[in-house]
Amino acid sequence: MPHRDTHSDSHVNAFAEMGLATELVQELTKLGITSPTPVQAAAIPQLMAGHDVMASAQTGTGKTAAFLLPALHKLFKPAKHNARGPRVLVLTPTRELAEQVAKVATDYCKLIPRCKVACVVGGVPYPVQNRMLAQPYEVLVATPGRLSDLMRGGRIDFGRLDMLVLDEADRMLDMGFIDEVEAIVSAMPKDRQTALFSATLSETVQRFAGPMLRDPRLVEMEVTVNAQPQIEQAVHYADGYEHKQKLVAALLKEASETQSIVFTATKADADNLAEWLKLEGFRAAAMHGDLAQRDRRRTLDRLRRAEIDILVATDVAARGIDVAGIGLVLNFDLPRFAEDYIHRVGRTGRAGRTGKAISLVTKNDFMLLTRIRRRYNIDFGTVSLSGLEARFKPGQGGNGGGYGDRKPSGGYKGKRPHGGGYAGASTGGYAGNGGGYGDKRRNESRGADTRGAGSESRESRGTFGGGSHNPNSNPGSFRSGSRDGGAPRAERPASNGETRQRRASW
C-alpha cells in the first residue's frame, strides 16, 4: 500500500508558517500574496522537507510559486559543493513560459543576497547567452533544446545544483524533448532534489519521471476546469469556417472591453484569421511557432501594453502566456488533445479573476467535445447569438457526430474500426460519413487520440513515443534504462478542492 501523507489547513494557511525565509515572506507580502493556493499549500511543505515531488497542477493555480519558493529558500544556505553554475534549474517546454518563470523568480529574488537569474532559450544569439552564463548566477531557467546545445559547448556546470524543476512535463514530452531532458538530467548530481509539475500525471509522464525522482511524494490536485468557478465555459454550435468567422467577430465585439485569445489548429489559420479580423477593424495579431523569437516577444509585449486586443494563436505558441487582461478565450478549433483544452482555458480567469471560454463546435467536433467533457467532467453551457444560430442541431450526426435519440448500440458495418465516422440510424450509433458500430459497442475506440492533418508541427526534433495515438498503440516507447514496469495506476479524480498526496509506487 502506498504511504499517504496528509496536510492540515490549520498549519499551512500562511507562508510564514511553512518555514520559508523571512525575506521571501516579506517579498510576497509586498506583492500582495499572503495566503497559499491549494497546490502551494500541498507542495511547498513537501519540498521544504526535502522530498522529491511529482505534482499535477493546471495553469493559473499558482504552481510557479509552489516550486520557486522552496527552491529560492535553499539559496539562504551555502552550496553543498564548490563549483560554478546554477543551484536551481527550471526546465520549461517553451520560450514564453521560460521567460515568464524567470520574471517571477527575479521578483522573488529582490531580497536575497547575490540571487541572480539567467534565462536561456532558443531564438537568442549564442554569444549573448555565453556572456550571461560567464557571470555569477544562482537560478537558471531554460528550454531543453537550447540548454542541450550550451552543454555540448561546455558552457554549463551542474556541480553545485541543489534542485531541478521540470515544469509542464507533459508538454515537454508532447514536443519530443525526451532525449534532451534525459541527457541534461544525466549530467546532474545524484543528491539533487527534483520537482515535476504537469497538467496531468498520465502513465506516460510517470514512466518518464520514474528514473529522475527518488521516492517522490505525489501531489494530485483535481484536474478539471470546473475547479475554477471564475471561468464560465460554453459552446456555440457552428456550421463551418465562414460561420465561425462571423461568430468570432460577434463574440469579440461583445467582449470589446477586455482582451481575448483565439485558438486555431494550424499556423495558417492563425495568420488568416488575424488578417481577416484586422480587416474587420479589430486590433489583432497572430502568434505561432513560425514567427521569430523577437517577433513573438514583440507581439506579446504589445498585448501586455494593450496595443492589441486580440491574439490569434496556436497551442504551442500560447504556452506560458500570462496576461492579466485576458477576459475571453475563444476556441475557433477544438484542440486534438484534451489536455490542451486545460492549458487554453487557463489563459483567462488567472489569479482569481473572472473569465469566459467559448468553443465553436461543428458537427464534426462532437468526438473531441465528448472526450474533453468526459476527461475533465465539464458541464458546458450553450450560447446562441441571435441571427447567428447554427443550422444543425446536436444529434443530427456528422463525421463522428453526436448521439441520436439514444446511445449507440448498433452493429459495426465499416471495414476498419477507426476510419470514417460512426454510421447508423438515429436509434442507435453515430451518424457519420463512413463505417459505424452496430452489434459491437465502441468501447475499444473510446479515448482514441489522433492528431488531425494540418495541425501545428512540433517545434522540436520529434514526438515522444512515436506512432499515432490509437487504442491499440503502445503508450510510449522507452529506451533501456527508462522505467517500464508495473501495472498502470488507476487515475481517480479527487473531489472538488481535494488534494491527494502519497509516495509514488512504481
From TrEMBL:
Residues 246-391 form the Helicase C-terminal domain. Residues 44-219 form the Helicase ATP-binding domain. GO terms for cellular component: cytosol. The keyword Nucleotide-binding applies. InterPro entries: DEAD/DEAH_box_helicase_dom, DEAD/DEAH_RhlB, DEAD_box_RNA_helicase, Helicase_ATP-bd, Helicase_C-like, P-loop_NTPase, RNA-helicase_DEAD-box_CS, RNA_helicase_DEAD_Q_motif. Residues 419-437 have a biased composition (Gly residues). Residues 13-41 form the DEAD-box RNA helicase Q domain. A motif (Q motif) lies at residues 13-41. Pfam families: DEAD, Helicase_C. Signal peptide: none annotated. Residues 389-506 are annotated as: Disordered. Residues 438-449 have a biased composition (Basic and acidic residues). This is DEAD/DEAH box helicase.
